Amino acid sequence: MRHRKSGVKLNRTSSHRSAMFRNMVTSLFKFGRIQTTDPKAKELRRWADQLVTLAKRGDLHARRQAMAIIQEKNVVHQLFGYAPERFGDKAGGYTRLVKVGIRKGDAAVLCLVELTGQPVEYVKEPSKKKAEQAGKPEKPAKKVKKAKE
């Protein structure tokens, strides 16, 4: 019996499965929508909703947990920047699955996985060093003496 065993195997090893879903969830948050097969999309929804919940929490521990899954640092910063505004009032259902059609090669059902809510433009705040350097005048370039030939 398969009681209390969550997740799908998809005929892959556990390391292949986790790497695949880590790549897919990174792409989902990077581009906002991805196209994949129906069983993968249903499992991806679980991963993505869990990461949005971490991003809404927003503390350092949640950020580190998200960094363990999402493979690009800038995608994590982007997610934590817009998630409270985009998904703040919702208690779940952060992704939407739309059936696209059937793949021609193997007749697999394809789904479009996309994030719900109004897209929020994420603006990266300038760091303190760059802000201080922006206020200072530029130093004149040093003159280089040419060697006589």
Describe the model.
The chain is an alpha+beta fold. It has one domain (14-135): Ribosomal protein L17 (50s Ribosomal Protein L17, Chain: A, Alpha-Beta Complex). 48% of the residues lie in helices and 13% in strands. It is built from five helices and three strands. It has helices spanning 14-31, 38-57, 60-69, 73-87, 128-135; strands at 33-37, 95-102, 109-115. It has a three-stranded antiparallel sheet with strand order 1-3-2. A hairpin with a 6-residue loop joins strand 2 and strand 3. Helix 2 crosses helix 4 (73-87). The longest helix has 20 residues, at 38-57. It is elongated. The model has no long low-confidence stretch (mean pLDDT 89).
What key attributes describe this structure?
alpha+beta; elongated; 149 residues; 50s Ribosomal Protein L17, Chain: A
Share of residues in helices: 40-55%
- If you compute it from the alpha carbons, what radius of gyration comes out, rounded to the nearest whole angstrom? 22 Å
Largest sheet: 3 strands, antiparallel
CATH architecture: Alpha-Beta Complex
Task: Categorize the overall geometry.
Answer: elongated
pLDDT < 50 runs, ≥5 residues: none
